[in-house]
């Protein structure tokens, strides 16, 4: 049984590159992308609900989801760009550049949605659906590429510390 509450550290780990834009080693870009992902993904169901029910409430919900998704996406983009240009090895990965370009395309789709819905969210009709469907698809693409960077290449994550040697005693569990 363990005598301390330390996190178990495996003997061999994949290499990671710690995020440069972090607070107490917690990377900010992965934290900031949560709300834009949620808002821009829920945009499509809100547009479908508006077209199905005809209730202007859903058009207003879609407007706010689009606006908050764009604003949060811009914040996440700034944090991601800072990480990309502060981490040299990140710029060498094709996945990082693909994630960057796809993210810019996603922000352009979100900006087009805000522009489309600006005068009257309820007057957009099927045009809103033509904007929100590719937006939801791009959220998946950008998320997949970002996940490849984090989980596949270990870039911009929490980062590992060196394993501390513990005194050998027969009462401890082996590391997984």
SSE series:
EEEHHHHHHE
Assign the structural class, choosing from mainly alpha, mainly beta, alpha/beta, alpha+beta, or little secondary structure.
mainly alpha
The amount of helix comes to: 55-70%
Strand content: 5-15%
Mean pLDDT: 86
Q: Would you identify the regions where 5 or more consecutive residues have pLDDT less than 50?
A: none
Strand runs, count: 4
Q: Treating each run of at least 4 consecutive H or I residues as one helix, how many helices? A: 6
Q: How far from one another are the termini?
A: 14 Å
Q: What does the overall shape look like?
A: elongated
Oligomeric state of this protein: single chain
Strand order of the largest sheet: 1-4
Task: Explain what you see.
This protein is mainly alpha-helical and 176 residues long. It has one domain. The protein is built from six helices and four strands. It has helices spanning 28-32, 34-53, 56-86, 88-91, 94-117, 126-152; strands at 17-18, 22-23, 26-27, 155-157. Helix 2 (34-53) runs antiparallel to helix 3 (56-86), helix 2 (34-53) packs antiparallel against helix 6 (126-152) and helix 3 runs antiparallel to helix 5 (94-117). The relative contact order is 0.20.
Give the gist of this structure:
By secondary structure, the protein is mostly helical. It is 63% helix and 5% strand. It is elongated and about 60 Å long.
Map the helices and strands.
Blueprint: E1 17-18, E2 22-23, E3 26-27, H1 28-32, H2 34-53, H3 56-86, H4 88-91, H5 94-117, H6 126-152, E4 155-157
Parallel strand pairs: 1-4
Antiparallel strand pairs: 2-3
Pfam families: DUF2231
Domain DUF2231: 25-157
Organism: Luteimonas wenzhouensis
